[in-house]
Amino acid sequence: MGSGQQSSSPGAGRRNTRRALVGIPAALMVLAVVCFASLALGARPISLETFIQAFTGFDPSNGDHAVVHSRIPRTVTGLLVGAALGVAGAAMQGVARNPLADPGILGVNAGAALAVVAGIFVFGVTQLSGYIWFAFAGAALAAVLVYGVASMGREGATPVKLALAGAALSAGLSSLMYSVLVTNQDTLEGFRYWQVGSVSGRGWDLIGQVAPFIAVGLVLTLFTGRILNNLSLGDDVARGLGQKVALSRAVTALGVVILCGAATAIAGPIAFVGLVIPHMVRALTGPDYRWILPYSMLLAPMLLVAADVVGRFVAPPGEIEAGITTAIIGAPVFIWLVRRRKAAGL
Q: How far is CA 344 from CA 16, 41, 122, 256, in A?
C-alpha cells in the first residue's frame, strides 16, 4: 500500500475536495427524502395531507396518525445503525488495509451471535432488550480476542494476521453456536428473529440504550481520518511520520468495536452496508479517510433505510427484513463497483 494510492497530484486532490464539498448537501437532501419515504410509505397508504397532520395535529385515535408515529423509531433505528455500520466498515477497511473488511473480519458478528444464543439457552432471555447486552458483550469480547491473537509476535497486529485471526475465530464461534442451536429448538426459534437483521419492532427504550454507544463510537472514529491516511501508506511510513502504529490501530479498533457491537446488538447482523458503502464513497472522494468517514456516515443510513422501505413492498402484505434486502441490493452493487474500479485503493 504505497503512496501511489493517494491522490496522484495536488490538482487531483483539490478536485476530490471540491467534489466532496459539493456532495455533502446533496447527500443530506437525498437522506431527508429517504427518511420521508420511510415515514410515509408502507403497506398502509398514507396521504400527504394526513402525513402532515400526524405531526402538526396528532390525534391518538386516528389510526393513520398512529401508523406514521410508529414508523419514527424504525426510521431512527435505521439511521443510527446505518451510520454506525458505514463508519465502522470504512474504518475497519482502513485499519486492516483490507478492501473486503466488514464486521465479520474481526469476528464481531460471530461473537455477538454466540452471546445471544448463550443468553437464550443459558439464561432464558426472551426479549430483544435482553439480547442487546449479550450481543454487545459478545461482539466486544470477540474483537478483543482477535486483536490480542493478531498482536502476538514481533510484527504486531498486521493486516494479514488480523484477517486470519478474525476468520479463524468466526469459524470457531459459529461452529459452537450452531452446535447449540441444532440441539435446542426453543433457542433456535428465539434466535432466528434476531439473526435475520431488522430495524422494525425497535422501540424508544432500545434506541435509548444503544444510542449513547453509537454516539461515542462515531465521535471516536470520525477523528481517525488522518490516522487511517497514514496507516494506508504502510506501517513503516506511518512510523516515519511519527505515528504510533499499535496505539493508532487500537484506538481505531475500539471505535469500530463500539459501533459494530451497538449496531449488531439492536438490529442483528446486517451484511453489505459496511462493505459496499466505503467503496461507493471512494469513487466520489478518493482515498482520503477524512472524507470517506463522514460520507460513509451519510450514505450508509441512506442505503439501510431505503432497503427497509423497499422490503415493505416486495412481498405484501408481509415484509422482507432490512438485513435480507440490503444483501439483495448490496451484492450486485458491490460486484459492479469491483468490476468498474478493478481494485479500490485503500
A: 15, 36, 44, 21
**Axis-axis angle for helices 159-181, 128-151 (nearest 10):** 140
Distance of CA 263 to the CA centre of its chain: 7
C-alpha cell recorded at residue 36: 420521508
Secondary structure (DSSP) of 160-182? HHHHHHHHHHHHHHHHHHHHHHT
Alpha carbons 187 and 119: distance in angstroms, whole number: 9
The model's pLDDT over 2-51, given as tens digits with 9 standing for 90+, comes to 444 444 455 555 666 777 777 889 999 999 999 999 999 888 888 888 88
Query: What are 283's three cell numbers?
Result: 469513487
Sign of the CA dihedral running 324, 329, 331, 332: positive
> Is the pLDDT at 285 greater than 60, yes or no?
yes
Supply 200's cell numbers: 422494525
Nearest CA among 177, 163, 134 for reference residue 265: 134
What 3-state DSSP class applies to 41?
A: coil
Q: How far is CA 177 from CA 119, 167, 191, in A?
A: 12, 15, 11
Are the beta carbons of 160 and 153 closer than 8 angstroms? no
Average pLDDT, the chain: 84
DSSP 3-state of 241: coil
Residue 341 pLDDT > 70, yes or no? no
Residue 336 or 10, more confident: 336
Local structure of 72: helix, strand or coil: helix
What are the residue ranges spanned by the domains of the chain? 3-341
| CA quadruple 107, 113, 118, 124: dihedral, nearest 10 | 160
The fold of 3-341 is ABC transporter involved in vitamin B12 uptake, BtuC (1.10.3470)
Three-state DSSP state, 218: helix
Choice among 3-12, 65-74, 199-208, 239-248 with the minimum mean pLDDT: 3-12
d(CA 93, CA 27): 22
Say which residues have a Cβ less than 8 Å from residue 279's Cβ, sequence separation at least 6: 99, 334, 337, 338, 341, 344
